[in-house]
Amino acid sequence: PADAAPQGTGRVLAIANQKGGVGKTTTAINLATALAAARKRVLVIDLDPQGNASTGLGINAGQRDPSSYDVLMGEASLAEAIVETDVPGLAVVPAVVDLTGAEIELIERPARERRLRMALGAEGLPQYDYIFIDCPPSLGILTLNSLVAADAVLVPLQCEFFALEGVSQLVRTVDRVRRSLNPRLDIQGVVLTMFDNRNNLSNQVAADVRNFFGDKVYKTVIPRNVRVSEAPSHGKPVLLYDHRCAGAKAYIHLAGEVLKRERGVAA
Ligand code: ADP
Ligand code: MG
Description:
Layout: E1 11-15, H1 24-37, E2 42-46, H2 52-56, H3 68-72, H4 78-81, E3 83-84, E4 90-93, H5 99-105, H6 115-121, E5 130-134, H7 141-149, E6 152-158, H8 163-180, E7 186-193, H9 200-213, H10 226-230, H11 238-241, H12 246-266
Parallel strand pairs: 1-5, 1-6, 2-4, 2-5, 6-7
Antiparallel strand pairs: 3-4
Magnesium ion binds at residues 24-25, 48, 52.
């Protein structure tokens, strides 16, 4: 049935937070790269019309046809939209700005919230261990498609004053999707991003988030690191741009924690 979990696709993790600029795309790119470096087969599906994950993985405009937009509109399969990156074992389904229109165009389509899930279940998709979905900064139909397609959500939270305010809305949305369209949906974890240890506010917010989410919060904290922010303009994950910087090391640690939790799930 169309509602069965997509078979043989590996684990599908949506990277979501309706706030922009919290580190979703950076986490998608670098966590995916760290897992590929650990010899996992990884796919990133770029579901943000801004296409930052595609750009950050070195995919140029000419390589984005078909794109995730065509997949959602039923005009291409996921397999057809896959582009290999320079990172061995890491592929991406790129995004183009047309995706902005999908929020409206999909309203008219049947199974509008299940289109990505159906695409993941289609035959011909290569085997992946992990599929990350980089969500746009909203809780519209695109993010809903990811939550319906995903096994679990990974929530990046920037250590700033209103971090927890927006996230309660995301948690309610996850609960709602679990009750209606995707009973297996879980929160894989919450990752604190752009952490500045010298900043009291960063420390206070981190403490509040750990209080609220308990062990859902990864021990690994991603520090604010200029190398992390420079890497995308070179079309490279920070692990390739400067693998020794603090940001790269943090993402490698995070990948280790994610794998550990995933093994817990599989057991
Ligand atoms: P989102 O996808 O949630 O909108 P991004 O991952 O694009 O957020 O991050 C927003 C901005 O912050 C980008 O310019 C990115 O390069 C920068 N950034 C993200 N993580 C870090 C970090 N750990 N250190 C420094 N800059 C970062
Ligand atoms: Mg983004």
